[in-house]
Amino acid sequence: MRHSVFSCSLILLCLSFPAAAEWGPVEVIGRTIAPGEALRFPFIPDRSFEASFLNMPVFVARGSKAGPTLCLTAGVHGDELNGVEIARRAFTATDPKTLRGTLIALPAINAEGVRTGNRNLSDRRDLNRAFPGRSGGSVAAVIANAVFSNIVMLCDALVDLHTASNNRANLPQIRADLSDPEVKQLAIHFGIGIVVRGSGPDGSLRRETVKAGIPAIIYEAGQPLRFEEAEIDRGVQGARNVMAYLGMTGDPELETPDTRVYERSRWVRAGLGEGGFFFPTASLGDHVSAGDMLGIVVDPFTDAETEVVSPVTGEVIGMAVSQPVLSGFALFHVAWKD
Ligand SMILES: [Zn+2]
User: According to CATH, where is 2.40.50.100 located in the chain?
Assistant: First the structure.
């Protein structure tokens, strides 16, 4: 929440929030949460047919001391379960009695998709192209508008939690608009060690949040439709690191983490007419050189075998799992510094 009192952390991120003397309860979508209290409640207590789309869980922890508001959002893509669990665990691990500021978690924004294992909404729209939304549009636009106007505008910083999509896996990484110094510092202080440049597509929660003047980043880790403990653990720790960086935990100031910042990335795809069964030989996190073989695609009907070769030198930050693929299918995501 942007107020008159101004406070700066040690590095670049400068936030304003009420001074200790003004610190009191916070109101979120009509609920009042007192200092030192944590509350979990539905977005709207309405049982109508349409309302179920908006009936996502809202978690708010109001710290006993003044500080900024961090928002953790997840389940914008309903099948990306690692993020849902990161938001839940990070919130549960936060004690409002010792917290400085406010933690708001929306762990399942596309709650219907989380229940049913679907990336998109029931009308097949991608919610992450609908922000900031509008009140009179499609279901996606209505949900986006409700989240953006009621929650996002309360945040001083936002971390949106995702995984790869559709039978692909991502190396744990942050994606961020590195042209914005506040966003870049937030990205580095998540502490995952890899930051990839990118401002995100139009209508994505992260891009529209940054456009609204609120620093926002994405944590991408693992595969959809499963819970992966290592990726979840690192995400929970990252949320904790961001809270420390924002001065919300009272932890000592963290060192600036060693981070590989990648300015460029590209997908290596199956060539024209080179569909078949994909068998990777490279793994997430491999550092590869231009010309290195990353895997093979075997045509099971002709027995023809095609090597998948990296056209660039970089690190494998995303890849398809072994599966049948067609021409143009994205197989490996390789990033490099420039
Ligand atoms: Zn996603």
Answer: 263-336
Q: What pLDDT digit, counting tens, does each position of 114-145 carry?
A: 999 999 998 899 999 999 999 888 999 999 99
Evaluate whether 130 touches 95 at the Cβ level (below 8 Å): no
User: How far is 15 from 213, CA to CA, in rounded Å?
Assistant: 12
- Measured in Å, residue 242 CA sits from the centre of ligand 1 at 20
Architecture of domain 263-336: Beta Barrel (2.40)
Give the Å distance between the CA of 172 and the centre of ligand 1. 13
**What is the distance in A from the centroid of ligand 1 to the CA of 310?**
25
Rounded to two decimals, what is the model's pTM?
A: 0.94
CATH class of segment(s) 6-260: alpha beta
Q: What is the pLDDT of residues 185-227, one digit of tens each?
A: 999 999 999 999 999 999 999 999 999 999 999 999 999 999 9
Q: 28: CA distance to ligand 1 center in Å?
A: 25
CB 73 within 8 A of CB 128: no
pLDDT of residue 15: 59
Q: How many CA atoms lie within 13 A of 27 on its CB side?
A: 2
223 C-alpha to center of ligand 1: Å? 10
> For residues 334 and 310, is the Cβ–Cβ distance under 8 A?
yes
d(CA 53, CA 104): 20
Cα 303 to averaged position of ligand 1 atoms, centre (Å): 35
